[in-house]
Each structure stands twice: as structure tokens, then as C-alpha cells.
Write a structure and sequence with these properties.
By secondary structure, the protein is of the alpha+beta class. 43% of the residues lie in helices and 26% in strands. It is built from five helices and eight strands. The strands form two sheets. The protein has a four-stranded antiparallel β-sheet, with no helix packed on it. The protein is elongated. It comes from Pseudoalteromonas shioyasakiensis. Keywords: Membrane, Transmembrane, Transmembrane helix. This is YcxB-like protein domain-containing protein.
Length: 152
């Protein structure tokens, strides 16, 4: 059981794209401070420290913001991948990995464009399925792990 969610639908189902969210701004600050540190270390070798500092310090915030925004955009645009292993189902989105143990899944139901897993605490999660995936193969693997087919 391994698939990648349809990219366009997966993008529509995630948080809004925001370059001024708290996490992105913290990342911008960290990268800017890193570049300031590098600039200060490299300028210590110069004779005219103040003159070179005034010429090069602008690179730190520009580089920090561009790098942070680029990394956020790549992370935001990355597809969601679903995989299974001996201990459960794995959902991977960029650097975010979620593991769902087999024991927590009580039942599953196929819907038009995905699959809904119902957990032992009555919560649910929906994964999108590509059109060309073999649903019977998924059902066989889920049944092999003693997960029964449910009804919504």
C-alpha cells in the first residue's frame, strides 16, 4: 500500500499559503541572524571594518528572508505520500511524518476520491486516492492487519 495523493487536491486541503505566518517569520529571523554572524566573522579579517560592514550587512536580511520563504514554498508545495509498514500507516508531507499504528484503526471506508479511516476513539482521517490505484490491493492489506471494512 503506497501512493501519492493527487497534488492539486492535496494542496487545496492544507493550510493557506502565508509568507507572514509566525513560523515563517521566525525562520526568516533565524536565517538573518545566521547570515549576520557569518558577515561579522568574515569582516573581522578586514582592515576597514565599519566601511565593509555598511557595504555588506544588507545581504543578511535579504538572504535570510529569501531562503526562509523559498524553503516554506517548497515545503508547502510538496505532495503528500502515504505508505504502510509493519507497524502502521505513514503519512509524509515534506518534513512532517505522521505514523498511525494499526491498532488504532478500527475500520475503513472507501469514498469517491479517497479512503476514510475510523479510529478506536471514533475520530476519523481521510486520505485522497489517485484515480488509477487498485483499491482491492489496499483492502487486502488492511484486512491482513485485521481492519474491517466499515460503513459511513
Amino acid at each position: 500500500m503506497k501512493w501519492t495523493e493527487p497534488w492539486v487536491k492535496s494542496i487545496q486541503n492544507q493550510e493557506r499559503y502565508s509568507l507572514i505566518s509566525k513560523g515563517v517569520l521566525i525562520s526568516c529571523l533565524i536565517w538573518t541572524l545566521f547570515f549576520v554572524f557569518l558577515a561579522l566573522v568574515s569582516l573581522l579579517t578586514k582592515d576597514d571594518f565599519i566601511n565593509h560592514l555598511a557595504k555588506t550587512i544588507w545581504i543578511a536580511p535579504v538572504g535570510g528572508f529569501i531562503l526562509a520563504w523559498g524553503m516554506y514554498t517548497i515545503r508547502w508545495l510538496s505532495p503528500v505520500k502515504i505508505d504502510s509498514g509493519p507497524k502502521g500507516i505513514i503519512r509524509i508531507k515534506a518534513d512532517n511524518i505522521t505514523s498511525i499504528p494499526w491498532e488504532l484503526i478500527s475500520s475503513y471506508t472507501f469514498i469517491v476520491d479517497g479512503i476514510v479511516f475510523k479510529f478506536t476513539d471514533d475520530s476519523e482521517i481521510t486520505f485522497l486516492l489517485p484515480k488509477d490505484i487498485d483499491r482491492d490491493l489496499i483492502a487486502k492489506e488492511l484486512e491482513a492487519h485485521s481492519i474491517k471494512k466499515g460503513v459511513l
